[in-house]
Structure formats: structure tokens, C-alpha cells
Amino acid sequence: MSFDESEKIKEFHPPKNYKTLFFVVILCSFCALILAILASSLNQKQEEAKTVDRSKQLLIAARVLSYQNYFLIKEDNEYHPAVFDQNSDNLVETSEIRKATQKEILYIYEKRVKPKLIDPKGNLVDFSTAGINYQKYLEDNQKTGYASLKYKLIYLVYPNASSSQISDSTKPIGYVIPVNGMGLWDAIYGYLAVESNGDTVIGTTWYEQSETAGLGANIALPAWQEQFHNKVIFQKAPDGTTNFQRAQIGIIVVKGKVSEVYGSSPKSDSAVDGITGATLTGMGVTDAYRDVLKQYRPFLEKLAEGK
Amino acid sequence: MKKYRSFFLDPLWKNNQILVAILGICSALAVTIKVQVALTMALAVSFVTAFSSFFVSLIRKITPDNVRMIAQLAIISLFVIIVDQFLKAFFYEMSKVLSVFVGLIITNCLVMGRAESMAKNVAPIPAFLDGLSAGLGYGYVIIAVGAIREIFGFGSFFGFQIIPLSWYATAENPGGYVNFGLMPLAPAAFFILGGFIWIANIINEKRL
User: Fold this and answer.
1) Are residues A221 and A205 in contact, defined by beta-carbon separation less than 8 angstroms?
2) pTM here?
3) Is residue B208 within 8 angstroms of chain A, CB to CB?
4) ipTM for the complex?
5) Is A117 inside a domain boundary?
């Protein structure tokens, strides 16, 4: 480059670059400022929405709440629509279906769901006994899951009763286990609720997933999740009995229909239909149940054997 | 006044961003699987194009030419993030369904197309009208594609089952109705969109 040319370039550019840089800095700071204000003002609302959604999904898994957002109570092994009655502080059966408000859902959650821990031997312990702070425990482990920890998280679901009747010694009607695993694209998070016999499934939900919309994402749909009701997590032997010590644990999402894969063999009691076009998501879900339940096995065996 | 009207009406049909300019095709494939998703997306895109065009036009005279695209992109992303955060706070369930697609509005070529070809040349209010109707023009097309895909792919419309469940093939009645398995997949949107563009071309040619 000759001396003349570099002179020319110098003449043209410095003032322009300076102006450009100034413009970009101002524009970016302005955008950043707006977003910062927005994020901090909406943050609380977003966290609330997330917590409400998680609590709701847990109640749906435990069949205290239906997918259509009304309460359920169980009578003679059947679920009936219910509403919250302020006077008796209880859910009462109703013929007129009314959707539950967010406040009622949170109240019922507070009252009937209690988080506890399972120690390595499979015994229930309180958070205070284990010396663990619940909020901090959740924050630290919600990304990686609770199953591989020394103290594993479990939710006890108490029967429908007023808050004064529910105490630590009340026998839970079910246990909800947080389940997590890898789907096709990303981590998936959900709940699995089992009855107090530690074997029969009440229900399941997947509250956080980013599977393919319309295919793998259907694991979050009620129609698919309904299948889990009354399945068993300990696989039955060919003669229909369950050996809790040796049986395989988990629920298998088969490729295709259960009736085509297992026929009417007792194995079909631990399997659900797969989703067409979402085989890999199904495998991820199967793995998630197996890997998580394996860690909870000592506790579930104790429940199943009535100890 | 008449001029404002043409700013608004032009991108709706004569200069429709999808059908005529063939922009925004990529997102049209991803979010047209169901009508409800397509509708939310249409509203989100309309909001983003309208306001980003307005602000791009507002600063058009002080924007240095060599960074104008980066400046446009910064403004577009600002509005996309606003939409995303807003959905997460107030329509949590919808934001769960849309997941990454809201963030991907940034890469929707029609938003940038409006900023680059219109907003940087005209005053803020025409730019706003033009952006809004470009978004709406995009919106009605993806909602139509979504309707076809949902009806034939899932037998439902807006989440309600419209093809009676009793028509469906079962083990006892293997000759019954079966959902069109291609519809939920992306290629189906290609075919439907191609058909729409073809029809639009025929109509537009006749008018000339």
C-alpha cells in the first residue's frame, strides 16, 4: 500500500467508525436496559407460574386433581369429581363439575402433600432429621434429579381430611417419586405416583420436556398418560405372581401396542403403548422410569412387603 | 389516509410475505402442526414485526449504514424476548407447547425482510402498519396450513376432536378411518404451502 492510499483511508474512516461505535453502544445499552427491567419485573410471576404448574402436575399424577382441572376423590376404587368445601376444610363429592382455582390447588397441595427423604437403607426420614434445607435441596438438585443422591426426595400424599386431622402418623394414600431422564432432544422431568402398596401406579405426568411437537411431546398429553393408571412397577413373573426381591422394576414403553408385543402375558401389566413416530422418546421414558425406580427400590420393596 | 390504507392492505394479499415473497417458510413448517400453536405464533410474529418496524423506522435517520442490519437485529430480538418472557409469565402452558419456536422468531426472514425493505425507508406509522399486516398476512396462511394439518393429521381442530372417534379403525374394525400419518411431519407443510403458493399465483396472474 502506498503512502497516499493509507492517507486517504485515514481521512475517511475514523470519524465514521467513532459514530458507528457510539450508535451501537447506545442501542445495545437501551435494549439491555429494557430487557433487564422486564426480566426483573416478570421474574417473580414466571417462578410462580412454574411452581404452580409443578404442584398441579404432582396432584394430577396422584389423581387428586384431574387433567381438566377439577378435584377428584377416591371412593370404592373409583375417582369422582369433587369441590373444595371451606366449612369442612375438605374435598366433597359433587355432581356439578367446577374447576379448581389456583388458590385452592395450592392450599390442597400444602395440606396433603409432604416432601420427605429416603435414606440409603430405604427408610423415610424428615428433612429436619437429615439436617437438609428443603428449598436449598430442591434448588441444588432439580436439574440433575434426586434419584442418585444419598437422600432421595419423595412426596407423601395424605388422604382427604381436614388439616387438623393430618399429622405425621397419618398413613399416606400414595407416594410421588420425581422422575427424570433423557428424551430425544433434552432432559425430561416428571412425576410417578404409586399407591401405598409400593407397586400399583396411580398416575404419571411429565411436566418439563422439549420433545418433538406432535410426536414425542405427546408424552405430556393426558390421553397417553392415562394408560399408566393401575399398571405395576414390579414386573410380574409368567405365572402372574410378583417376587419383589427379584422382579425387574420399571414401566416399559413398547414400540407399537402392548397387546401386540406382549399379548395377554403378565408382563403387559408393566407396559404401555408407545407413540407412533416417537420410538426414541419412548426409550428415553422407559430408561427414566427404570433408572430412577432402581434407586428407590429398597424403599418400594419395604412398602410392597408391608414392612 | 389512502396511502396508509395501502400500507396496511398491500402485504395482506398482493405482497403476501409467504405466498408471494416466499419468506418465513422455515417457521411455517415448524409451527403449523396445530391451529392453536399457529395462532399464538401468528400473534407473536405480528407483534414483533409491527413494533420492530416502528422502531427501525424511528431511528432510520441516525442509523449508520454499515451496522444497520445489526441494529435491526438487536431491535427484533428485543421484541422477541419480550414476547417470550411475557408468555412464560402469563401463559405458561402455551409457552411450554411453543418451547423454542418463540425464540426462533428472530430468525424469521420476514421480520428482517420488512425492516430492510420497508421500515428503513418510510416514516414510523406506515412502517408500523406495514409490519403489522405483514405479520397478519403470514398469520392467516400458517393458521390455514395448521388447520389442514390438524384436521387430517389428528382429526381435531383447535384441540377438539371433530372426526368422530367411532369412525377410527380398531382391532375389531380394521377398515375404519386412520389419521393421515404424513400430516404431522414437516414435509406435509411443504406440500400444502406449495399448493397455496400455486393457487395464489394463479389468482394473481389472472388479475394482471
Assistant:
1) no
2) 0.73
3) no
4) 0.77
5) yes
